[in-house]
Amino acid sequence: MITVPAPAGPGAFVHPALFYRDLTEYLTGVGGFVRAALSADEPVLVAVPGPHLTALRESLGDGAAEVTWTDMTELGRNPGRILAALQDFADRHAGRAARIVGEPIWPGRSPAEVREATRHEALINTAFAGRAATVLCPYDVPGLAPSVVSEARRTHPTLVEEGRDLVSPAYTDASTVCADCDLPLPEHDGAVYRLEYSHGGLAEVREHAEGWARTTALTAARRGDLILAISEAAANSLSHGGGKGTLRLWATAGPGSGVVAEIHDAGRLADPLAGRRRPSLASAQGGRGLWMIHQLCDLVEVRATETAFTLRLHMATP
Question: What CA–CA distances, in Å, run from 40 to 80, 139, 194?
Answer without folding.
Answer: 31, 25, 56
